[in-house]
Amino acid sequence: MHPIDTLDTTGLGNRSYLVAGTDAAAVIDPPRDIDRVLAAAERHGVRIALVAETHVHNDYVTGGLELARLTGARYLVPAGADVRYARVPVTDGDAVPVDDGLKLEAVATPGHTQHHTSYVLHDDGLPAAAFTGGSLLTGTVGRTDLVDPRLAEPLARAQFASAHRLADRLPDDALVLPTHGFGSFCASGGSEDTDRTTMGEQRRANEALSEDVDTFVGQLLAGPDDVPAYYARMGPVNADGPPPLDLTPPETVDAGGIAARLEAGEWVVDLRSRVAFAREHVRGTYNFEGDGRLATYLAWLIPWGTPVTLLAGTAGDIAAAQRELVRVGIDRPAASATGGPADWLAGNDRPSGFRRADFAALARELRAGEDSVVLDVRRDAERAEGAVTGSVHLPVHQLPGRLADVPAGTVWTHCASGMRAAMAASLLDAAGRSVVLVDDHFEAAEEAGLVTTGRTG
């Protein structure tokens, strides 16, 4: 079998693929930062002849148009997709050669979107793999409520039929290679984060292939998870054709410039670890860890179009964050600064900070009857599984617009592991609230006897 490279975009829970022939290659659902794709092609010594999209993506900005332009590749896009650029429209059954012995066959698999198309890879005449995009995922399927919630049920029924259509035409040993599902909000449930899976494994384990259609549809539509706010912007950007990527370093600013940007109401984002941020930071800055899910949560929380200044320990940290953010359409940070709070504080300003604690400390606090507010910033689906008794619930993505809804008192923020709680703590700290970051895993709350099973508040 010809080699297939997987290009992980872990922060968004997505994967792209390059299948290499002897001289030519095909790329499926490429990321915005296409230099990774070009490097993969160079490693194999092949030219990129085809770039294929399974659908117009809702969750990230594609690099497909720019990759095709730079390489001269044919750009395959489902014929039903409403796009405003030149491409090769593909319909069900189209077979497109890649190289000697390799071809892609388009298979209509509506469900995740109306026009969704999977690609079966034929290798020396045999169906060796299927690039399934947001259709058949690992252990689950793609969500059907992202295009229009009113279409969720008919698309769910289409998704069921599409999964069975793929299963009917692929042998057990054929690889199933989805784009979404490894932490992506495009997945309908808990997708397994495995390197590779086969159609035989999915026949045994995937809900779309093991349930009847009505049971499947009911499960798929029951309590859909939240949709990141920036998803509404990705589809139009991809339909219009994203502009070329610009990863040149942003303007650097000094302490005075940081203070001026804070005064102007811009978002100044500290990319350091939550441990370092809690110890000391510039008051008014927000903590989104560079090694967390930066792109997802910053794009979700920020008022779209607000200028962003990035603070980090090194220029490499800034560059890595910039690369993450362009994947969701935050193309040019307004400015950046490196170092630490001592470098970023203007004049006689002193650093701010707040306490970190665990759930055991929170239990002691509550037993002592202190005037404290426990703020749960997890999503609805997480809280439904169990919550700290008496806690206030505000998902972190709602917090910027609902700071006034947080009751008076010292606020103990928690999530499932500490990352989102740190974001929330920084937002509250910037608003002048007294906060404690519960930097702990939620299992410890259960061990401390704090949790009531089922939805609470």
What would your notes on this structure say?
The structure is a single chain. The protein is an alpha/beta fold and 457 residues long. It has three domains: 4-240, Ribonuclease Z/Hydroxyacylglutathione hydrolase-like (Metallo-beta-lactamase, Chain A, 4-Layer Sandwich); 255-344, 3-Layer(aba) Sandwich (Oxidized Rhodanese, domain 1); 355-452, 3-Layer(aba) Sandwich (Oxidized Rhodanese, domain 1). 30% of the residues lie in helices and 23% in strands. The chain has 16 helices and 23 strands. The protein has helices at 35-44, 64-71, 152-169, 199-205, 207-210, 213-221, 231-240, 255-263, 274-279, 294-301, 315-326, 341-344, 359-367, 380-383, 419-430, 442-447; strands at 4-9, 14-20, 24-28, 47-52, 74-78, 88-90, 95-99, 102-108, 117-123, 126-133, 175-178, 197-198, 267-270, 286-287, 308-312, 335-338, 355-357, 372-376, 387-388, 392-393, 410-414, 435-438, 451-452. The strands form five sheets. It has a six-stranded mixed beta sheet with strand order 1-2-3-4-5-6, covered by helices on one side. Strands 7-8-9-10-11-12 form a six-stranded mixed beta sheet. It has a five-stranded parallel beta sheet with strand order 17-22-21-18-20, with helices on both faces. Strand 2 and strand 3 form a beta hairpin. The model has no long low-confidence stretch (mean pLDDT 95).
